[in-house]
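Undecaprenyl-diphosphatase (Paenibacillus rigui), 271 aa
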Amino acid sequence: MLSYWVSIIMGIVEGLTEFLPVSSTGHMILVQALLGIPEDDAVMKTFEVVIQLGAIMAVVVIYWNRILLLFGLKKDPSRAGKRKLNLIHILIGILPAGIVGLLFNHWIEAKLFSPKTVLLSLVVGGILFIIAEKTTKKQTARELDDITYRQALYIGLYQILAVVWPGFSRSGATIAGGMLSGVGRGAAADFTFILAIPLMFAASGLSLLKSHELLTSNVLGFFAVGFIVSFIVALLAVVTFIKLVSKIPLTYFAYYRFALAILFGLYIYMS
């Protein structure tokens, strides 16, 4: 099963879906089923963590200047004397999901990682997107630096949905949560991508520590190809999404999720 074609296909799927509000988990389960990969394949589970790291690195590259600003390693004279995004926003945004993930990680993996759970989350997540688009809320944060601590907390609380419910989509939950708390769609997307960096690095790091014995020389080439493909595809996907996010309503992604749920239903019915 360690074919480089499998590595490339999985890398493309991960890179395309990890940061779009369409559920990378749902796509991964479907693609693995189509490729005939068992859901409990330990090597493939570790491989998924590795290609997820590739996708995260793409976000680090895209937001590198913003990361430097957050840590005070770069100055922005245009924001002097104005409110700006800082590390407290990031901490507030990741704490809720981080705490829930640490406390319930084993239970979530054992009980909730199933096709039926993902199918339901695709539908419910799509409904949330429609509600976020249809709900009239005055935008008080049109830019990333306008986000308040309270809004950062709201976004962090919505992020819990993706932690406890596989297939919900972390980016979708946080963008919708941001919009419902008065953050513009573009600013919510930017904040979502930045929040992903520490949270996903931590989650992926813990997963790799647990399965480090599987990182042998036999799989390094397979893993490396997937990592590189995921990085490149995620780079293109996120840059494209950032350019289009202010023009594309979440409702379009909701309809896509409903269509994917139908595919999931067929997969479950035929299994």
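The radius of gyration is 18 Å. DSSP finds eleven helices and no strands in the chain. ok done for today
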